[in-house]
Amino acid sequence: MGTAGPSGGAGWSLAVRGGSVLRTQRGQATVELVLLAPLLLVLLFLIFEFGRVFGSWLIMTNAAREGARRAIVVPFDTSSDSEIQGRVQETAQFLSVDAVPCSGTYDSCIEIGRTTEGFEKLVTVNARYKVYTLTPIVGDIPFIGAINYPGYLEVVGLSTMRWE
Prior knowledge:
By secondary structure, the chain is α+β, with helices and mostly antiparallel strands. The chain contains two helices and seven strands. The protein has helices at 28-71, 81-91; strands spanning 14-17, 20-23, 108-117, 120-132, 138-141, 145-148, 152-162.
């Protein structure tokens, strides 16, 4: 039961401790929650987006490695490109990877390169994928300035192996 304040109204109470008068602050936790909730939500969404991008990067890296492993056991010419691209697409089955060259506009692509250095023949598989973010950040942030966060982040899987 609160005591009436100096103006006669109720709304705050007095507590006496050790001879000094302390005012209890009702609603302090609510105000703190209101101030911190947007920051906590942004942090939560950033953690979620980081997990999506990191998972996609792991899948693309593994797919490029599997494509390079397939490329080192097939003939060392462009006749086996469709087989290598198929292996990359099969490995990255949770992502829709297109078997198109990485030039111009694309959402995903696969490039296969072959080089000869002395007696070594090297095969390089480059797989790219654009991860479209769910929570784009665009606008002005106080003390930071204007942010134009892109709607996607590109992850790249690259693997080079020696042809056998």
